[in-house]
């Protein structure tokens, strides 16, 4: 009887090994995608009533020598104001914008530091001097260093930027005629520094510059500094400070815009 059990075990052993390999492959395939979602809300009552919502979605996919990134951000702010005609209180939008960034990196060698990239960006801000802004770039990048606790990568390349300026119609003017566009050749440079301070706290610094070749064209600079604290395995608390700077804006608009946000991040 024991010999029969031993023979059966020997016969099943190869299948158990194949099952373990299949399970490991499935785990690796599942881990190729990293997805995180952010949500933050702030409501004020009393003398001032307002509601703010910040949302974001980040997707990363790694396979072989390819790295694909997709990031979406949205911000909505509403403030309670009194209507001059009716005297009734109503919520009015004071800020409403969203942007989306997609980038693909291809490593020039397996596990190497150098890579080629292609990126595209779109932003729509209801309260800026631009109806929308979009850009595309491709070039070369490098992982300058990567340790167990920190990493730094940067890339640079030529590109093109397309801006649509918001139409501000005069009396009797056609808004479609007043709307203007601007196309500019740019050099794009971006960098990301990450530092794992301890098992629970992570620091990130991101910077991107889109420098126009012509001095009278609009150049764009963006920076985001964030500090993330792990609450549980899949839930994090994030504090971020963002700065957007445009060199050329319409009269009555600021060149610099800042955004401070506190959000919860769920990773899955």
Write out key terms for the chains shown:
single chain, 268 residues, mainly beta, Porin, 2 helices, 12% helix, disordered N terminus
Q: Structural class per helix/strand content?
A: mainly beta
Helix content: 10-25%
Distance between the termini: 48 Å
Overall tally of domains: 2
Task: Describe the protein's architecture and organization.
By secondary structure, this protein is mainly beta. The chain has two domains: 1-31; 33-267, monomeric porin ompg (Porin, Beta Barrel). It contains two helices and twelve strands. The chain has helices at residues 2-30, 175-178, and strands at residues 33-44, 50-63, 66-82, 89-107, 114-125, 130-146, 150-165, 180-196, 201-212, 220-230, 235-246, 256-267. It has a twelve-stranded antiparallel barrel. A hairpin with a 4-residue loop joins strand 5 and strand 6. The longest helix has 29 residues, at 2-30. The radius of gyration is 25 Å and the shape is flat. Residues 1-30 have low confidence and may be disordered.
Provide a quick synopsis of the model.
Helices cover 12% and strands 64% of the residues. By secondary structure, it is mainly β.
Chart the SSEs and their pairings:
Blueprint: H1 2-30, E1 33-44, E2 50-63, E3 66-82, E4 89-107, E5 114-125, E6 130-146, E7 150-165, H2 175-178, E8 180-196, E9 201-212, E10 220-230, E11 235-246, E12 256-267
Antiparallel strand pairs: 1-2, 1-12, 2-3, 3-4, 4-5, 5-6, 6-7, 7-8, 8-9, 9-10, 10-11, 11-12
